[in-house]
Amino acid sequence: MTNRSNPDLAHPRRRFIGRLAAAIAALTAGLPNVSGAESVGAGSIDSSDHDAWMKSLKGKHRQFFHEVNLHDRGMLMANNYLDVYQEAFGAKPGEASGVIGVHGAGLALAFNDAAWAKYRFGKSSNVIDPATKEPATKNIFRTGGPLTVEETQKRGVVFLMCNMALRRVSRSLAAERGEPYETIYEDLKASSLPGVILVPAMVVAINRAQEAGFTYARV
């Protein structure tokens, strides 16, 4: 029999929905209103200073090359990328943008000749100078040909260096040489090639670049 004195008793679903709405209201009371909040989505860059390097790369096509080894493959890939977009797709200068992030063994690409000689990167990485046939005592990837850091930078490609990797290398060298870690860290940081940008962590730089519309290639 229907209880006409209390219509809600005739509608269990109505009572349930009412209680659910009240519970949600209680749970959300006092939370900030985020309906108008802005989010970082594809193609956008926030105001962080760590993202400033992205602002100069305004091409329609944007590629991130992750260099984890000590060779010229990153420069080769970046130059091929730019050449093909220009020659096969008719891209105008600036329509294709590239960045090379050096990390791991590839970190030494970003150091000057003095650091290579002092810390013997050529010997530790088994990089042979083609002119001397001996372990390189200078950065043979810095200049001297199209697949070098300086020539690739001239084409607008940005180079990033991972600070987490720099700290790990500094700790290793400090232990090996019996010198203070901070001394070596500051020396290596000051020894980076002109135009190389130090980012807090390469994995985060890659993440933020992809959120801003860059595609990714490990080389």
What does this protein look like?
By secondary structure, the chain is α/β, with parallel strands linked by helices. It has a single domain (49-218), classed as DsrEFH-like (Hypothetical Protein Ychn, Chain: A), CATH 3.40.1260. 38% of the residues lie in helices and 14% in strands. It contains eight helices and seven strands, in the order αβαβααββαβααβαβ. It has a five-stranded parallel beta sheet, sandwiched between helices. The chain has a two-stranded antiparallel ribbon with strand order 3-4. Strand 1 (61-67), helix 2 (73-87) and strand 2 (96-102) form a beta-alpha-beta unit. Helix 6 (163-177) crosses helix 7 (181-190). It is globular. It starts with 11 loop residues before the first helix and ends with a strand. Residues 1-10, 12-18 and 20-47 have low confidence and may be disordered.
Short description, anyone?
The chain has eight helices and seven strands. It has 219 residues and is of the alpha/beta class.
Total helices: the number is: 8
Calculate Rg over CA atoms. 27 Å
CATH architectural type = 3-Layer(aba) Sandwich
What is the helix/strand order? Answer: HEHEHHEEHEHHEHE
Helix amount: 25-40%
User: Which overall shape is indicated by the principal axes computed on the Cα atoms?
Assistant: globular
- Total beta-strand segments: 7
Major sheet: 5 strands, parallel
What is the terminal-to-terminal distance? 76 Å
User: What value does the average pLDDT take?
Assistant: 85
**What is the fourth-level CATH superfamily?**
DsrEFH-like
Low-confidence stretches: 1-10, 12-18, 20-47
Classify the fold: give the CATH topology: Hypothetical Protein Ychn, Chain: A
CATH class wording: Alpha Beta
Spatial strand sequence of the major β-sheet:
6-5-2-1-7
Measured by DSSP, the beta-strand proportion falls in 5-15%
